[in-house]
Amino acid sequence: MTDLNETHDPALRSWVASANRPGCDFPIQNLPFTVFRRKGSDEPWRGGIAIGAEIVDLAAINRGHLPAGSDAIAALQAAAEPALNQLMAMGAPAWSALRLALSRALREGAPQAQAWRAALVAQADAEFRVPAQVGDYTDFYTSIHHATTVGRLFRPDNPLLPNYQWVPIGYHGRASSLSVSGQSFRRPHGQTFAPGASAPTLSPSRRLDYELELGLFVGTGNEPGQPIGIADAESHMFGLCLLNDWSARDLQSWEYQPLGPFLSKNFATTLSPWIVTMEALAPYRAAFGRPAGDPQPLPYLDSPTNRERGAIDLSLEVWLQTQKMREAGDPPTRLSKTNFQRSSYWTLAQLLVHHTVNGCNLQPGDLFGSGTQSGPDAGEEGSLLEMSRGGKQAFKLPNGEQRTFLEDGDTVILKGYCERDGGVRIGLGEVAGTVSPP
Which of 8, 65, 145, 146 is catalytic? Predict the structure, then answer.
């Protein structure tokens, strides 16, 4: 696990003025990776890093401005590619060397400032794509509050299944349907079985939902048959993004038994364009623990380091803007706010370790979803399924509209950030997606 170093110094300031503004998601202490090109152009896709309101075009940087013979030069070349898989495969020493070199070059007074200004592209002028080639995508179910609330809707007498507190639950998703923030997708069709009906029908989903999640990009992988131990798990984790796992609840309730989600989940998953490295999140690592009366993790999922710093103190928010709100010029309204440290029953390291304990091999660029993140209290729900109590209780928006599930034209925006008094805000940016008619 990354220790604090000079790149985390709260006193650092950048010659990119927008990175020094209070509340900025992308100060010099962050430096998240992305893949972009200028909006509306046929330029090649290439890697960049966010700094303030700008992107540093890593393909436009003179490698001679980095320390000669360092790992940073090879890492910079990999980071400038149209996908970040090669960088992810290089491992933590290379990622850290590049981060340090970029941090030093972007600080106030750095000699690279004049030359690197030409490599800046305004984020508002860029378009993005999924920043890595995702070979496999696994979605987990890490929030015990979400699992319990949803379980109570369908199994009032037995809301939490007995395996939940022992094993990280997950299923394999559909990597081909991953897209980047700004996605607009058609309301999905599928089979549903209405109460009292004698047969299912094929129709557009009427219970479309979002899921507030984090995405974890795998860095270095492992060989088939070679599990990753808990002591090594962090070195295989490249970074985090925001993830919206759109869900058709009416399709899901009909199809999910006995094998789990299928068409209810594989039509769209939207990612934020920014990958915040695990190193950038080091100041916000936190203790992980279970309530004393709960089963404690089996030994292969436990270590002193994971108990001391396995969690992340990270705030997550859901915002909604309906079509009527956009037409009226009304801003999005916040539906909920929760915290990853409070909501997650498993750490990211435990997810990775369990995924490989049977010998499964991970590859650079593989993606994990955290599962819906919900807290224990009202206002901390990570889905409409919970907010509307399974569609039974509509809630009112500030403009008078009501919702139980998503309507056509609704835009859902997820935000994530770490912040505390005396610290520097490390933001994950945001991910937005809009529901189009079927």
Answer: 146
